[in-house]
Amino acid sequence: MKLRMASSKQKSSLGAMAMSQLPPPYAPCVRPISELEKIAISDMKLETHHRGKRTALRVLTPPDRMTAVMAIVEDEQGTALLLQLYYQPDESVVPAEEIMQLGDVFILKEPFFKTATDGSYTLRVDHLGDIVRLANSDDRIPSQWSKQPPNLRQSSIDIRVQGNEAVQKKKWAEAHRLYTSAIQIAETPEDEQLARLNRSLANMRLGRPAEALSDARRCDNPSGPSEKGLFREARALYELGYFDQSLERLESLTASYLENTAAKPEIQRVKARLREQHTGFYSFRKMYRQAREMPPLIDCATFSAPVEVRASPGRGNGLFTVIPVSAGQLLLCEKAFGYAFAGEGHPETMSLLLNVATKKGVIGGQARLLTQLIQKMYHDPWAQKSYHELHHGGHGVPSVSEVDGHSVIDSFLVAQIQSINAFGAPKTSRDSISQRTAGEGGQKTVQEGKFATTGLWLLTSRINHSCVGNCRRSFIGDMQIIRAARDLEAGTELLFGYRAPQHLESYADVQRDLSSWGFRCNCELCISRKETTEEALAHRKALTKQLSKVLNGHQGTNVPAVRRILLQMEKTYPPGVPEAIRLELWDPYFALGAVLLSEGKPAECIRMIVRGMETLGFAITTTAGGKMALEVTRWGYMTDMMPWAFLHLFRAYERLAPELCVAAKKYAGIAYSILVGEEETLGDEFPQLA
């Protein structure tokens, strides 16, 4: 009763937001149970990890769930204590009663005995492999806790039938538990195969495709794979991203079982994924339709043909081009390894994660992503290996990957890797940019915000930082899209900003923000910041305030004053590098160009827009052979307003040189694709360019 009252009180005080606290890190147990010595709760010391020890525990109360799944347990001496299991699946996936049940017996390896936040004593389990649930027939269960005499135990068939009943009710965790019991006590190969075949389905529904594949492959008859076995193997391979192998199994299925109708639509789906994987051609409109669902998980394959992972001197690994690419070209379209949607309109998706060691907290999807990643690796050895290959600072990797038949997952290592490699992401970049640039284009300075939704992408995580960057990331649901932001030679390392550059930042400000990643940035923009004196930056800030008073839309702009202030601002930047980025200037130049266009001065509009682009590092040719021209000879830093800038050029050329509108539209499409990931919807956002 007290346990349930405490849970209710915390939920009511925090509203819908869950709170997780990450304690100081400690390593998981890497030794088998057989090598550990028994210890009683009465012999444990507070705030201690009892290395080399183990204790058997029996559950005395029904479980409850807050941020952990909890129940009162007792050891063999009858000493009772609260047991807390962290990083368990969501209640909607695996109910607490399926994680711990009244009477269940566990062995806790190297127990962590500590004081809870309310002052009570508890056994806290942060590593999934540190606690082992014992089957009813396990001879390691203390005799006084034995559940049933052998002659009263049910048969494998009886338990499998109960599992089938749970499947009918879509109680997948219950079905998984029952099928596992049926496997453990199966007396014939056929009974085990049938239980594994059924558990394969339960694993799929629980989001464990690697275990579903293992079960499907271990339930074949001597005469050959069964119809259900082939289909479930194919489905598991699909969810794991092995589309070629999935297609092979589906084709074997249709060849061996001619009456099967379920495989045909799956074959079409697999072939669509293979086309995406091999060619990089996607239906982005279909992606957007799928992104309307909650959570916005996209059914698409990863395309990565133009890039590969290589060593990057002084940076660890990086992502490099393997072919020459042009600005706007698709480099990578990657399905998330882990993704936790969170949004203001969905309070149930928000959570607070507090890290005791770093004394930092984050709000959003990070806590749920951490649990998701830990669960994913616990049930998929390949996922564990791939994740451990990401940069993880100085945190060591466990010396073994499996003990006692269970994966060894260091939850604190997972958290460390996540903190370095995960991205905040909008639901779609198109909607996010549209909101940031709402209103008349060119009139508003916009900055990229922080996003509550969090994801981790294995390949994209290899891209190293530059404030300027040569590629740009965008999102549609859990798909991250990387396009070249300029023309790149083969063998070029891809770089993008881990944070959006802000106006009027000092060099020290930027390096402080980047310090959590453990490096200092020496990109061209940071070099310019470093060379900017405090006096010059202060003067620039003062001029920016003056500018805001004379640049205020079509009716409130003093054009001569704006021109004068812009010339003064130009002088606050280090001399000698004409193409250097002047981050505070593009916005007012674009805004001034829009004003001049509205005043019927298209030629002056073109000059201002082009000058704004030049302050971002662009090189634009506007005359050739004495005639007007429009050619981007070098792409620069891409801002959210760049499509608007090309739209203003399009409108200006409509009046002065209509033949150049084609070029303006082409460049607007390239800029739009770099920003939002695709060009299919350009006409939707900019009807003038349709």
TrEMBL record:
InterPro entries referenced in this protein's UniProt entry, alphabetically: Gramillin-biosynth_MTr (IPR053209), SET_dom (IPR001214), SET_dom_sf (IPR046341), TPR-like_helical_dom_sf (IPR011990)
Top-level taxon in the UniProt lineage: Eukaryota
Gene3D superfamilies xref list: SET domain (2.170.270.10), Tetratricopeptide repeat domain (1.25.40.10)
Signal peptide: none
Domain called SET: residue spans: 305-499
Classification via PANTHER family: TPR DOMAIN PROTEIN (AFU_ORTHOLOGUE AFUA_5G12710)
Official protein name in the record: Protein unc-45-like protein A
